[in-house]
């Protein structure tokens, strides 16, 4: 374990006092394992204390952790090819003129040209549950792209919803089952997975035992649409309409479960462990920035730090991969400095409109990295040119990831 500065505790205590979130979990790890792990706060305002076993709604961390991981697995086995077009998986009559040219690699790297977000749930919630998947697929496939596939990168929930459908159809099983099998291989199935259950309509009608069960998970939003506090129930509305299982959102887990998954991918990247041959080649491909005509910040399923105002702060190297989640979750792995930082919060509790996490994240990352590099000689530290002060917003959508 490495000592963390007292300023880190003060930073979290101050954030709790100012109501940025009610719960937080931080884990720092290197090649040899976990170096620091701590939790702060309560599962909800007035709730019990958070522990390392308390689960968080991981939101868009689902994209790399479930969906991209499964594509890594399927492409390494030769069952899918990144150049496969959507026409292989969906009837051509459902494709618009522009979506017909989209390939799997475009969806994975957010360069499909599909819109970032659509509130499909407003209509889907009124449809019979057994029809929602097909209706949603038709809606997305009929969209006109905002740019030709491969022209530029734009973060898109829609692309990852389609990727989830494709995995289910090709594998002949639910995304939940497929992800569970992958997490078993990664050694984190018991702590990581989708949450599927019919939530109570009214919190006051829940028996005491059920309320205690809900406190295994941190609360997210007091949802005006569902008329209840969300706790152990997926926050994303489109994922909710799909029963909590989708390619873009739906995973719940702990900081340690995120680390166990990330550590396995990191080992494959370094050519270590069972299956490191084809999976190692795949990881090196998945963790390489994809080239588009206008920008190239995304890899296959993973984000990299923006040049200025990154949520990573100013001390991560350019060889860093990670992701943000709308509920206040994130992970970053610096492949050069060999450090992973996993920060989970419920910044949407009680409202999604509090975006102060944008300035909090870089402060945490800078504090962690300063402690991590304290004993390293100056010549061994990478030069960085990113602004450490603020996060200018990586995604600018109606459901942006703060």
UniProtKB/TrEMBL annotation:
Keywords linked to the UniProt accession: Hydrolase
Domain Beta-lactamase-related: 8-359
Residue stretches in coiled coil: none
Region Disordered, annotated ranges: 375-402
Highest taxon in the source lineage: Bacteria
GO function term, MF aspect, one: hydrolase activity
Protein name: Beta-lactamase family protein
């Amino acid at each position: 374990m490495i000592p963390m500065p007292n300023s880190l505790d003060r930073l979290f205590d101050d954030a709790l006092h100012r109501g940025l979130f009610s719960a937080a979990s931080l884990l720092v790890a290197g090649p040899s394992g976990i170096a620091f792990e701590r939790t702060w706060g309560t599962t909800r305002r007035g709730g019990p204390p958070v522990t390392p076993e308390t689960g968080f709604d991981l939101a868009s961390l689902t994209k790399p952790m479930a969906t991209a991981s499964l594509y890594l697995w399927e492409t390494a086995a030769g069952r899918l090819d990144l150049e496969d077009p959507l026409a292989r998986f969906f009837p051509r009559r459902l494709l618009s003129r522009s979506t017909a040219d989209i390939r799997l690699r475009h969806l994975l790297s957010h360069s499909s040209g599909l819109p970032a977000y659509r509130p499909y749930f407003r209509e889907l919630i009124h449809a019979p549950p057994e029809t929602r998947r097909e209706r949603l697929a038709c809606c997305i496939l009929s969209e006109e792209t905002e740019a030709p596939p491969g022209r530029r990168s734009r973060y898109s929930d829609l692309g990852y919803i389609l990727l989830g459908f494709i995995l289910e159809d090709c594998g002949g099983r639910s995304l939940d089952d497929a992800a569970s099998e992958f997490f078993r291989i990664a050694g984190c199935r018991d702590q990581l997975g989708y949450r599927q259950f019919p939530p109570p309509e009214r919190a006051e009608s829940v028996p005491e035992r059920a309320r205690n069960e809900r406190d295994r998970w941190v609360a997210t939003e007091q949802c005006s649409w569902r008329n209840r506090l969300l706790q152990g129930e997926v926050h994303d509305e489109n994922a909710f309409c799909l029963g909590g299982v989708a390619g873009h959102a739906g995973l719940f887990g702990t900081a340690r479960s995120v680390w166990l998954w990330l550590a396995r991918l990191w080992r494959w990247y370094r050519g270590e462990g069972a299956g490191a041959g084809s999976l190692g080649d795949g990881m090196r491909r998945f963790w390489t920035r994809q080239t588009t005509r206008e920008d190239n910040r995304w890899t296959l399923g993973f984000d990299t730090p923006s040049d200025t105002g990154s949520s990573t702060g100013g001390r991560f190297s350019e060889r860093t991969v990670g992701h943000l989640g709308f509920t206040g979750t994130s992970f970053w792995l610096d492949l050069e400095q060999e450090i992973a930082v996993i920060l989970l919060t419920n910044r949407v509790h009680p409202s999604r409109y509090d975006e102060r996490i944008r300035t909090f994240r870089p402060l945490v990352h800078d504090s962690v990295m300063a402690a991590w590099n304290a004993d390293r000689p100056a010549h061994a530290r990478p030069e960085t040119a990113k602004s450490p002060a603020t996060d200018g917003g990586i995604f600018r959508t109606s459901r942006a990831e703060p």
